[in-house]
Design brief:
The chain is an all-alpha fold. The chain contains four helices and no strands. It has helices at 7-19, 26-32, 38-42, 49-59. The N and C termini lie far apart (53 Å).
Length: 66
Amino acid sequence: MSNNLSTHPARHTLATTVTLGNNLNSKAISKMMGHTNARMTENYARASEKLISNEMSKIEGMYQYV
C-alpha cells in the first residue's frame, strides 16, 4: 500500500504541527492558509496531545485541589 501525499494532509500538518504546535495566533494561521475566516482553519487544525499539555501547564498551580 502506498501513501500518496496530497495537499489535504499537508494542510492539516501545517495547521496542527507547525503553527498551533508553535503557539501561533489562530487568526495568523488562518491568513497563512489563505482562509477568509478562522472557522475554515478550524477544519484543519486539530489539538495535539502536546498542545493540550502545553495549555494545561499554563493553568497548573492556579487552582489548589481541595
